[in-house]
Design a protein that fits this description.
The chain is an alpha/beta fold. It contains 6 helices and 8 strands. The protein has one domain: HUPs (Rossmann fold).
């Protein structure tokens, strides 16, 4: 029997090399999508409310106020940030955008109620009930509500992704970063964000994804 490389061994070697190459390409793509979001947010996202340019409409991204029966800190910290913007006189209006697909699940109304309790006038809060995804919220802000210059309100990692989407859709933007969540749940969110950024890039560059719902334009109060 020949002591040389058998066809099976050669096949296995090629398979291993091909799999490794695909793995490297996949990792590179994930890294590029992440870099694209980070780069879009560079010098546009602020931790200090005093640095946020004044006179804009704030887009507050939705999430539920409770998760697994406990307070959702992402919700609380976004409301904290929106309150700071308002009380610092940085924004003239708060557009709260979130999910309302189910009868007893309404992120925008929960955010609105929380902001009213913090002293934001009811007539300065507008609800977008079709912000099913970040892409939907960003695009609808422009195409439905006529917002072409916006300050995003969410955690930094989320604001970075929103910044990429805004840049791709011709929207002037900056962001005010809410406090992040340093818990086990926060770690899981960061892991999910990796996939969300890949989807973000594909939505913009490959799929041309549009919001699930558009509809009639809604003029914002002056």
């Amino acid at each position: 029997m020949s002591k040389g490389t058998t066809p099976l061994k050669r096949w296995l070697k090629r398979t291993v090399l091909a799999t490794g190459a695909l793995g490297v390409l996949g990792a590179g793509f994930v890294g590029w999508a992440n870099f694209a979001a980070v780069n879009a947010g560079r010098d546009k996202l602020y931790n200090d409310v005093a640095q946020v340019p004044a006179g804009k409409v704030a887009l507050v991204f939705g999430t539920d106020d409770r998760t697994q029966g406990r307070e959702n800190l992402y919700f609380r910290y976004r409301i904290d940030a929106a309150e700071k913007l308002w009380k610092a006189g940085k924004v003239r209006l708060l557009l709260v955008s979130g999910d309302n697909r189910q009868k007893h699940y309404n992120e925008p109304e929960k955010m609105k109620a929380a902001l009213i309790k913090r002293g934001v006038p009811q007539d300065r809060i507008v609800c977008d009930y079709a912000g099913l995804r970040t892409l939907d919220s960003v695009v609808r802000a422009k195409e439905i509500f006529g917002v072409d210059d916006v300050v995003f309100v969410s955690q930094r990692f989320h604001n970075e992704r929103a910044a990429y989407l805004a840049k791709a859709n011709g929207i002037a933007y900056c962001g005010f970063n809410a406090q992040d969540v340093a818990t086990k749940g926060g770690l899981k969110t960061k892991v999910r964000e990796v996939g969300a950024r890949v989807k973000m890039w594909l939505d913009v560059r490959v799929l041309g994804t549009r919001p699930r719902h558009l509809g009639d334009k809604v003029p914002l109060p002056e």
